[in-house]
Amino acid sequence: MTESTDKRVTSLNYATTFEQKLLGHKCDVEVVVNLASGEASVVAGMRQALRSSPACYLSLDTLEGLAECIRDVKKNSRLLDSLIDDATDHQLNCSFGGGTLIVVKPPSKSARFTLTIGLFHREGPVEELSSKEIDDAISLLDGLRKRVLAGVRK
After folding, report:
1. End-to-end alpha-carbon separation of the chain, Å?
2. 100, containing H or E segment
3. How many CB atoms lie within 10 A of CB 36?
4. pLDDT, tens only, 86-144
5. Measuring CA to CA, which residue among 145, 141, 146, 147 is closest to residue 62?
6. Per the domain annotation, does 137 fall within a domain?
7. What is the residue-averaged pLDDT of the chain?
8. Which domain holds residue 31?
9. How far is CA 13 from CA 31, 41, 74, 111, in A?
10. What's the CA gap between 31 and 40, in Å, rounded?
11. Residue 60, domain member (yes or no)
């Protein structure tokens, strides 16, 4: 008989939950720390009014990715000024985790955006597109992550 080479890699996690308001919606924010690696993940479950279970989940990574896409729109919106030869339409778009950003510029009109992140929705002229609300949410979630990591490392 041979020895079993099945070496299971398991690690203990510490998980905690906070109730926070994020992007205008009540959320259950879960922070999970892998005690072996020290890495932490943060996920927010957005709740609809009159519902006890979250309607959607957003990670800190998703919000960071979408904030970066918003900043990239400012750098690349000139691409919408004219169509490529023989093209019939064009747009800038980004889908990341539970969020979507779409920017369009119909002929002879100004560019417009639609931003949807879970239950959060904004639309309007591209000049009004801002990552401020998302950056605020990122700061809140990152602050919770840091607080939990500090408590675990005591």
Report:
1. 46
2. strand 99-104
3. 11
4. 888 889 999 988 899 999 988 788 899 999 998 899 999 999 999 999 999 999 999 99
5. 141
6. yes
7. 89
8. 13-152
9. 10, 11, 40, 46
10. 7
11. yes
